[in-house]
Amino acid sequence: MGIDVELMQVTQRGSSPKTRRVEPVDAVQDEADLFAEMCVRSSLPMLNRMDPYRTRILTAADMPQFIAEVDATRDMVTEQRERQRLQAIRALAERCSAGAGLELHLLGD
Fold it and tell me: What SS3 state is found at 104?
C-alpha cells in the first residue's frame, strides 16, 4: 500500500488530450510503505489527502505547498530512513518546480 513518487515529463502537441504523452524521468519507490504511513499520520492538508490506493498528480503550481509539508514532516520524524525518503521525494519536487512540462505523480497501489 505504498505511495511511489514519480517525476514525469509531459509533452502535448496542440490542445487535444489525445496527443498528451507522459514519460518517467525519475522515481522514489515506497517499498516499505514509509511515505504512505507518513501521509496517513500527517495533519498537514496536502499530505493527509494522499491516498495509498489512488493516484494524485501534482504540477509545478502545487510544489511550494508540497515541499513545505515534506520539509515540516522531515523535521518531525526521528528515523533516519524516513528522513532519507522524504529528502529524496523533496529532490523530485524541487526538480518538478523548476522544470517546464514536469509533473509529480504520487501512485498508490
Answer: strand
